[in-house]
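Let's sit down with a protein and look at its sequence and fold side by side. Go ahead whenever you are ready, and we will take it from there.
>
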Amino acid sequence: MPRSVTSSSPPRQSGPAHSDPLPPSADERPAQRRRQAAGTPGPPAPGTPLPTRRPGPSLPITRARAALRQLVQRPVLLDNTAALSRMGFHPRAQLLCAPSERHPGEAAAPGALFLPMALPVPPAPVVALSSGDPVAAQRRQVVDGLGELRAFAAEMHAEGASPDDEPDAFRKLDKLAMPAIVSALNAEDPQLRLVYAHVSVPDDRGVVADHRGFGSVEWRSFLADATPGRWRIVLDNAAHNLAMDLHVEGLPGETGRRGSVVHMSPSVPATVDPVLTAAEMAAHLRLPEGWPLMLVDVPAQKSLRSCRIFALSMALKCAADASLEHLHARQLRGEPPPFDTVEVDAELLLPAEYSSEAGSLSDGSTAASADSPATPGTPQPVGLLAHYVKTAADVLGPAYMKHAQSRTAVQGYLDGLPYGARHQPVNRKGQTLLDRHDAHRVARWPGPAARKPGPLLQSASIELKRIAFLDKAIRHAARCSAQDILPICEAMDNVDSRWRDWYRH
């Protein structure tokens, strides 16, 4: 049963209309007639003490009554004036159950707003596979595996998993589906040049156009061999997924070849210094010397394990963002950023990890290469690593916040924009960023082990985006060439028979 947030109690349902406008007499009232038939005395006279009430039989506890009792016994969670004001609700808001026959967006009383636990999900795509396909078995395996992943994502959305209760399966589910999703998006837009890369585990492979896979070695080879132009990258560093827009000038091996990178994290570090985190990420990239790097933290993600889908969505936004081209050109000219940034220097890294001598640990020993223990250690970064942007709104437009889960984060982002830009439409419907967020807002009730008690009011837009990506991957897998389906099948590694046991729990 969907729960709701409302600023006033809904009006009570009036009883059936009587043909006689006058009220019935006391003798005709049903309660009076029942007392007379049972020989029960009437109501006591004024001033007479009331008799002790005997406990009567309890009503049967139905599922609906149990749910209502549980709801009534909940503490008043939305009576904090400051929090309610930030959410745009009246301070006297109360939690009520929305009648099942009422549309979730329909107000039952003035000022009421009902928030469902889930949003409508489009039906799964129905695809037909050719019987004469030489790779029919592999294609069927990929399509069925993606269909299973899609069904699981839709199921978890319908169950209303809160950000704290989001299962670990999502992180691994998204990783399994990424090769097929990236292949589908590149086929849909050949100019996208989307790459899915890993920079931590050499044999952890993803499938992209013209590349068998990525690991630490493949990542550096890609930077050296990437053709000129812009590339969009989803980067998995084993702890987090990030989006990058890469601009390359010069052919591979050409003197003067250079590049510029805008690096986007879909979340803001909550418990650590963001500049220190930026230094660690910048050092982890191992960019060629002289390639400028700009780091931006986008306050979109609040859930625990959806960073890969957030990063993928932001990478797609880069393709339509012409302002990044001007930012790359400015970085390559060596001009300072036109907004507030913090210089990220290698000196910010922990002394226990790096000493002043490149390639040496603090105890004087040489660091072994992550690619081959037998090779000399990779020199540790020194000097200026990047520029960290203080305010995301200075660099990225509202489109990057379309799937942001927190309304407070959306409002904080908008406060960093010029006033005239806060109300610009972000989609074909003409919705502003706040309008779109509110249209995707749901109420979630986290479990007892969650960091915060419920209800949590958040946007479920990223959950629908995950399902939309899977739908594209299913349609692409059903019709792509054999050369495309084989590496996808290999990367998914027989997902149809293994994912339930490994990733459901």
The longest strand covers residues 241-249. The CA atoms of residues 368 and 376 lie 6 Å apart. The mean pLDDT is 74. Residues 139-354+379-503 form one domain.
